Amino acid sequence: MFTTRLVPALAIAALCALAPAADAAGEVPADVVRGEVLSGWVTDSGTRMSALRLTLAPGWKTYWRAPGDTGIPPNFSWAGSDNLKAVVYHWPSPEVFDSYGLRTIGYKKELILPIELHPTDPAAPIRLRGAMELGVCETICVPAHLSFEAELSGKGASDMAIHAALAERPVSAQRAGVSDVDCDIAPISDGLKIDATIRMPRLTGGEVAVVETNDPRIWVSEPQTERNGDDLRVVAELVPPSGMPVALDRSALRFTVIGAHSAVDIRGCTTR
């Protein structure tokens, strides 16, 4: 297995309220997050299924792609990579954390994030050179920068850690028994309000819903949920940078419903 160490650089965020354990200089420990690239294998379609494995210090956690109101969303750059046309991220189902009255969504202890690499030339090695901006939290949240590079060549080998992470992805709407998703979208003073009804069996444990759009600049409020039989109602506000109502493509909306032991990935909604 080819591995490469990711080099973290931490800086305390302005939103910090409580200090974590610190060294004598008062700085956040540099080993809060460590990582490696798992080389993975070449798939039947010619892509390479690799992964980033992040290991967090005890008591620390990091965020999912949609981190919640107060979280720091992860951001990737692949500038400088060779023979890389596209990257697809296969996020495992996250956990929901409630702390000091705030809700965030992410992972503790470890995150194995499968990344499916699409080469320009399937016969040539992929040379990865990239960076990841992410947030890590203990009693405070801080931004971290991870830079990495690796050369991935040959057919590789099956990796059970990557397979396990792929198996932990949210299940599809069809597999979860979602029969219908409809929504009303109405203008508000600074954006839009979405009121959706998802018809699906109840997940075990408390259900938390996440709403995403295809535009990362649009801020989405923490959705409010209400369960009535097989109907899960999800209400959220969407505020674009302009602070004005905008046209919204219903088919591009993405809902994730997270339960205690599973999650469901739902794409799009129809008009009531």
- The helix/strand series, from N terminus to C terminus, equals EEEEEEEEEEEHEHEEEEEEEEE
Helical residue percent band: under 10%
Query: What is the overall pLDDT average?
Result: 87
CATH superfamily of the largest domain: Thiol:disulfide interchange protein DsbD, N-terminal domain
- How is the quaternary structure best described? single chain
- CATH class call of the largest domain: Mainly Beta
SS-derived structural category: mainly beta
Taking all Cα atoms into account, the compactness measure Rg is 20 Å
Strand content range: over 45%
- CATH architecture tag of the largest domain: Sandwich
Largest β-sheet summary: 7 strands, antiparallel
Topology, number of strands: 21
Q: Cα distance, first to last residue? A: 51 Å
| Annotation field: number of helices | 2
Question: Which geometry do the CA atoms define?
Answer: globular
Low-confidence segments, given as residue ranges, are: 1-26
Task: Could you tell me the CATH topology label of the largest domain.
Answer: Immunoglobulin-like
The figure for the number of domains is 2
Organism: Tropicimonas sediminicola
Protein name: Disulphide bond corrector protein DsbC
Pfam families: DsbD_N
Keywords: Signal
How would you characterize the overall build of this protein?
The chain is mostly beta strands and about 270 residues long. It folds into two domains: about 160 residues, Thiol:disulfide interchange protein DsbD, N-terminal domain (Immunoglobulin-like, Sandwich), CATH 2.60.40.1250; about 100 residues, Immunoglobulin-like (Sandwich). About 5% of the residues lie in helices and about 50% in strands. It has two helices and 21 strands. The strands form four sheets. Strands 1, 4, 5, 7, 8, 10 and 11 form a seven-stranded antiparallel sheet that branches. Strand 17 and strand 18 form a beta hairpin. The longest helix has 8 residues. The radius of gyration is 20 Å and the shape is globular. It starts with 6 loop residues before the first strand and ends with a strand. The N terminus is likely disordered.
